[in-house]
Amino acid sequence: MRKDQSAQLASLKKSVAPYEKTDRTRSIKQLINTLLPLVVLWSSAYFSLSVSYWLTLLFAIPAAGFVIRTFIIFHDCCHGSFFKSRRANDIVGTITGILTLVPYRQWKHSHSIHHATSSNLDKRGIGDIWIMTVNEYTEASSWKRLYYRIYRNPIVMFGIGPIAVFLLQYRFNAKGAKRKERMNTYLTNVSLVVLYGVLIWAIGWPAFLLVQLPIVFVSGFLGIWLFYVQHQFEDSYFENEDEWSYVKAAVEGSSYYKLPKLLQWITGNIGFHHVHHLSPKVPNYNLEQVHNSTPPLQKATTITIGTSLKAIHFRLWDEENKGFVSFKEMKARLRNPKRVAEVLTVNKPTLQGD
After folding, report:
1. How far is residue 125's CA from residue 113's CA, in Å, rounded to a whole number?
2. Over 290-347, what HEC string results?
3. Of 66, 68, 63, which is closest to residue 32 (Cα–Cα)?
4. Is 194 exposed, middle or buried (CB count within 10 Å of its CB: 0-12, 13-18, 19+)?
5. Maximum Cα–Cα distance across the chain
6. Residue 352: pLDDT band by 50, 70, 90 thresholds?
């Protein structure tokens, strides 16, 4: 890291440091006001099956919101920011991971890599959503382009994605995973079999599926959406290793997703994503305070529910113009070989270094 970046980071870190301390009382209260409503809403969804399935869905949707809130607690535990005790973070993180279908140590590992490499074009691939650059897409084979287009299709990413990721991908360990990580994944899977088995024994598999599937789908969809729009938005930041800056990746490469207060509470302040990326040790309940008390952080790109919808059309990162382009725009470029040649010529050093 260059000296100017180090100085900038040190200055911001000094401003943020007072908010990095955990508050055990607030953490316990958050556990209660998250898990208790989740249990109540899940039970209400089940008992409402005898009345109307529409009523069941009416309970399932807010239940999914509390699954997201549970995931934020899990997320803080992964960063060691929910409790001061590492053991407490590991225990609560594992339990909340089971409730959200995510193995604690597996996700903790990949997410730490995400934080260390976010917005770095030379270090993509772990803990993030696949992004190709214009140059990479131009040089890719027809099959790879097709695969990428399918992957980036909103129906696939937000429709099939929640099922593929939370029900299938997280059930398996990554290649080369260490023993603790592997064992934690096994523990999560066995715990899910036991928990789901007891519920199915108690209420029957049809009722269980009618309640649990919409909760899993909606919470998974919202989780992927939040992660997607907080790193892929207009005026985002991506650079190659030699130009990459940790501070810029946090403040410019992570958005401030300004949500209505109720949704901000349900999502555990994760909309202050720029603050979180600057200092992952800040508990979720302190993120807003950091944003409000640190002027440089208030310069982060602000998106709303309305403006965030534009991100659906963001497909490729244009290194030349420092922005996202759609497949439609890319198609127009590919029809103009001269334009493609210009792009490749301008970015030739970057391609050689990839």
Report:
1. 10
2. HHHHCHHHHHCCEECHHHHHHHHHCCEEECCCCEEECHHHHHHHHCCHHHHHHHHHHC
3. 66
4. exposed
5. 66
6. very low
Residue with tokens 């309305």: 306
Intra-chain end-to-end CA distance of the chain, in Å: 20
353-to-5, 29, 316 alpha-carbon distances in Å: 23, 50, 19
Which pTM value belongs to this model? 0.90
The Cα–Cα gap between 299 and 161 comes to: 32
Neighbours of 320 (CB within 10 A): 14
State the Cα–Cα distance between residues 272 and 219, nearest whole angstrom.
19
Strand partners, 228: none
Residue in this structure with the two tokens 């130009």, named with its chain if needed: 243
Q: Read out DSSP for 203-229?
A: H-HHHHHHHHHHHHHHHHHHHHHHHHH
Do β-strands 132-133 and 316-318 pair in parallel, antiparallel, or remain unpaired?
parallel
Q: What share of the chain in percent tops pLDDT 70?
A: 92
pLDDT value at residue 351:
35
- Please state at what angle helix 86-99 crosses helix 179-203, rounded to 10 degrees: 40
Can you list the alpha helix ranges (DSSP code H) found in the chain?
3-16, 24-47, 53-78, 86-99, 104-117, 134-139, 142-152, 154, 161-163, 179-203, 205-229, 246-251, 261-266, 273-278, 287-293, 305-308, 327-334, 337-346, 348-353
Question: Of 39-43, 95-99, 240-244, which gets the smallest average pLDDT?
Answer: 240-244
**Could you tell me which residues are beta bridge partners of residue 257?**
303
Pairwise CA distance, residues 7 & 193, whole Å? 50
Sign, CA dihedral 347-348-351-353, equals negative
List the structure tokens of 184: 């934690």
List C-alpha distances in Å: 223 to 174, 234, 271, 344: 21, 20, 12, 36
Give Cβ neighbours of residue 67 (< 8 Å, ≥ 6 apart).
38, 99, 100, 215, 216, 219
**Looking at residue 14, what is its pLDDT?**
81
Exposed, middle or buried by CB within 10 Å (0-12, 13-18, 19+), for 153? middle
